[in-house]
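Incident log entry.

Two folding requests arrived from the same account within the same minute. Monitoring flagged them as a possible duplicate submission, but the sequences differ. Recording both here for audit purposes.

Request one:
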Amino acid sequence: MALLSKVAQVARKAVGRSGPRLLTVKEAWRLTPNMIRVVFAGPELAGFPEGREGGNCKLMIPDVGETKDGFADRLQNGPAPVRRTYTVRRFDTVTQELSIDFVAHGDEGPASRWATQAKPGDFLGFAGPSTPKITHFEADWYLVAADPSAIPVAAAALEAMPRDAKGVAIFEVTAPEDQQDIDIPEGIDVHWLVQPDPHKPSTAQEDLIRSLDWPDGRVQTCIAGESGVIRSLRGFLANEKHVTKEDTYISGYWKIGLIEDQHQKAKRAGTA
């Protein structure tokens, strides 16, 4: 065994983490025309931590035609499969079922291609999850904004909020039919914006946010999506509205023209 592999095993034991889980699909369907929900179930979910809705995870995608046994061996021994970052949408502690939502954009990427074809009995690898992006709700007013890639994290945050929360939620989707049923507090003013081509830059979210009557008091944010939009909004929140770092969750989940590996490299380099 390579030294790095031994070190990784020791590190996982030290923090109580196991290796990747091999998850099996129970069911999959079109939640909306451009969003697929996949529900996983099985003994591999034993011990899955509670309260991780909105936390990120890594999905490992099998090759087309790869057998479950062959993929399980590859998870343990390599070569490493393609990995993509997703969000835990829901974990049902009673049924031990895990739901993850995928943006449906055909065969453009391996995860979307896998989800588009997913059926009961299919499988993939899973690592994580992290803790949720927002773990405390103490603000006077909340600002939530997301494009399709970030609807799961935004929805999880809204569903975790106190029922008397006030604020604004903005969702930018591909079609009017992509609106979802989300358990949103009544005091949150919800806007659904339509951007038919997500690969073209859009200022719709920023324009709406800048037009808002900014409230007095403490503001917390949950904002995620395309990196160009995020970069501009991050500057607006920090420099013009002076929202503190502690109360700001804002993250670029993808960038027009880049696959995830390229985007992550750009983020590390500070160019995305």
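Request two (distinct sequence, not a duplicate):
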Amino acid sequence: MAKNIPSANIGIFGHVDHGKTTLTQILTGKFTDEHSEELKRGISIRLGYADLTIRKCPKCEGSKAYTTFPKCFYCGSNTEILRTISIIDVPGHETLLATVLTGTALIDGAILVIAANERCPQPQTVEHLTALEIAGIKNIIIVQNKIDLVSKKRALESYKEIKEFVKGTIAENAPIIPISAHHSVNVDVILEALEKYIPTPNRDESKPPLMYVARSFDVNKPGTPIEKLIGGVLGGAVAQGVFKEGDEVEIRPGIKKGDKFVPVKTRIVSLHQSKQKIDVAKPGGLIAVGTQLDPFFTKSDAMVGNVVTLPEHAPPIREELNLEINIIERLLETNEKIQADIKQGDVILMNVGTARTIGICIEKNKNKAKFRLKIPIAAYERERVVLSKQIEGRWRLIGYGVING
């Protein structure tokens, strides 16, 4: 894969207002809060995407050698491209947790942003780290942001709070990097850490191809003549295998007809990544897949949550789920530990890949439960399903289930 084509996806997680979007902008040069409602409210609502090309000066040493610019800031030498990665900025607000969990389905590593000017942990910091644990994201960097707003004493207190917070978690040994995203301080240290702690995973291209749909579009301008219409476009990440232009693919659970979802077969007519046309789509980076679908079905993210596969490898469409339940004891902002069990009749928010649905518990026996789904999903046996429950009027991440049967 060319060095200017993304080879990995890295998510930026953290509590609302801790500087995730600012950090994304500093790293990539792109402001990812582009949706009008995001600009009004000053928070991320949808997943934001931007590419980051990491370069290194052949003459400088240590973190000073790492940059995103063609010329070295310190010695003026031409820098060399190491790799390009896709940065995914996920929302921090608690009401957008389902979008966060969508992000974990697409990433290979994570940057967890924690602001030094607030006590750690904040509610969404807990939620996001729990989501990373459930998703099994082991390669994590912790960024201690906003050190320009606090004293040295407070910065050290914040560091101790962070260490205590991640103790015993998947991020226990993650590096903690103090930065000021607003003033671009220590960005080179982050770039060095990305290379050291979040390598590009080894990909098995022989596996059956699978793509999670995170966005879908109608790219035609109003008034386009019928003979010039372009088919619907699917955006997302290839989880495994390889897709090629010309492949016949199946999309599941598909399109709703009446009260049922019907799988759809179509052909890939184009593949794009980082605004470049490509012939083959592999894991790493975010892909735009041009299809022969009627663009009516793909407009306004209507196909988010679907999976794309070759027809012979398509997962079953499930209107019910049998799950092996794993409840995670969580620490709430009130510092009270709760054990959120699931009982028959409970309403549970579920996330599988990029899909989200509501499940009603119809049977429960010890750590096994059966759910009837309001919206069907397409998923393989043994896939993980992230579970959230309304506790004190808010959706709370409580654990995960493994599909059994």
